[in-house]
Structures are given as C-alpha cells and as structure tokens.
Amino acid sequence: NRKPVTDPIIDKLIVDYSEEQNIARREISDEEIVERCIYGLVNVGAQILDEGIALRAGDIDMVYLTGYGFPLFRGGPMFYADSVGLKKVAETIAGFEKGRNGHFWKVAPLLKKLAAEDKRFNR
C-alpha cells in the first residue's frame, strides 16, 4: 500500500540537518508541494518557448503527457498553468524567489509578460 512509514533514524537526521542549516521546520501543504513541482516545469517551459526551442506550449505538454507520464486529465504543465491562471503562477514563483534558496526561482520573462497581459500559453 502507499501508507507512509516513518523511520525515527531518518526523522532525526532531517531534524539535525535542519538545525545545522538554520532551517525553520514548518508544515508544507499539499498545494505548495504541487506548486513547487509543477510551477517549476511551467517556468522552464516558458523559457523554452521564449528561446524558440519549442514552437507551441502544446508541444511541451505533449512531451510531458506521452514521454514523462504527466497525468492526462491535467493536460500537461502548460495547460495546467493556463487553467490555474498565469498571473497566479507568476506571483507564486515570485514569492518562492523571496524565500529560502530563492536564487533557484526567477519568473521567466515570457511568463511574466503573459501574466501581465492576462493571456494564456494556449490560445
């Protein structure tokens, strides 16, 4: 089954490392986990589009749907971002940029532009 099994040794390692690195422990919601995983894909997808590596957002979605097993009912990361709203995606990424290890997060210029214009990746 998929029920989590805790390991006290691993729990202690994580707590000790957090203390060593001065990382405040906190609850992380399921929503934040999804945002951090999927919005990263969306942001890189926007960079790929902006650089002309992919022609359309739908092309990126097809790679994720057929090559990486992204859930079909979500339609791919770019489609998912459109359904959430690019403004929300861009604002959330900007918030991550202000947090710990924020240097890993920077809103892609195309995502920022489309969000500001209230547009979508897929027209």
Descriptive report:
This protein has 123 residues and is an all-alpha fold. It contains six helices and no strands. The chain has helices spanning 8-20, 30-50, 57-67, 77-84, 86-97, 109-116. The radius of gyration is 17 Å and the shape is globular. 24% of the residues are buried. The mean pLDDT is 95.
What's the short story on this structure?
The chain is an all-alpha fold. Helices cover about 60% and strands about 0% of the residues. The radius of gyration is 17 Å and the shape is globular.
Supply database-style keywords:
single chain, 123 residues, mainly alpha, 59% helix
Number of helices: 6
Kindly report the oligomeric state of this protein: single chain
- What percentage of amino acids are in beta strands? under 5%
* Global Rg: 17 Å
Could you say which structural class the secondary elements and strand pairing correspond to?
A: mainly alpha
What is the number of strand segments?
A: 0
Q: SSE order, as H and E?
A: HHHHHH
Q: End-to-end distance, in Å?
A: 41 Å
Question: Uncertain segments of ≥5 residues (pLDDT<50)?
Answer: none
